[in-house]
Specification:
The protein is mostly helical. It has one domain. Helix content is 65%, strand content 7%. The chain has 5 helices and 2 strands. The protein has helices at 4-18, 41-64, 69-88, 96-99, 102-123, and strands at residues 22-26, 29-32. A two-stranded antiparallel sheet has the order 1-2. It is elongated, with a radius of gyration of 15 Å.
Length: 130
């Protein structure tokens, strides 16, 4: 049994938790992605649902004892969506490197790592025991 599904499960959980950690950190101002939903609800819920989707795909892979190309492709898309949604929230006046909090950094790293792990699973899928 390959550990990729467990890696994706952990990354999905990290991304889910990161939604509630400080997303923006500018001096005394700290706001989580969840708190920013009042200004822009769609990106928050997309990141939240993509994180839950990553957890669901990985969980079904663990339960089925296989993680084939279909699940890997879905996880790759969800990981990429998480990373893109995170980056799109920052503007030129407030760049990612200067104002990103721990939540934003975890979302970006978790999304990109989920995408990379999914690509590995696409190249060599886990066929399971059946």
């Amino acid at each position: 049994m390959k550990p990729i599904k467990f890696v994706l499960l952990a990354l999905g959980a990290i991304c889910l938790i990161a939604v509630f950690l400080p997303f923006i950190d500018v001096g005394p101002i700290k706001a989580s992605f969840w708190e920013l939903r009042k200004a822009k609800a769609a990106p928050t819920f997309i990141a939240l649902l993509a994180s839950l989707g990553l957890i669901a795909l990985a969980t079904t892979g663990v339960m089925a004892k296989s993680f084939g190309r279909g699940r890997a492709a879905g996880a790759a898309v969800l990981g990429l969506v998480i990373a893109i949604i995170t980056i799109v929230q920052f503007e030129a006046e407030m760049p990612f490197g200067k104002v990103a909090g721990m939540g934003a950094k975890l979302l970006l790293v978790g999304g990109l790592a989920g995408f990379a792990a999914s690509i590995v699973a696409l190249i060599k899928p886990d066929r399971g025991l059946a």
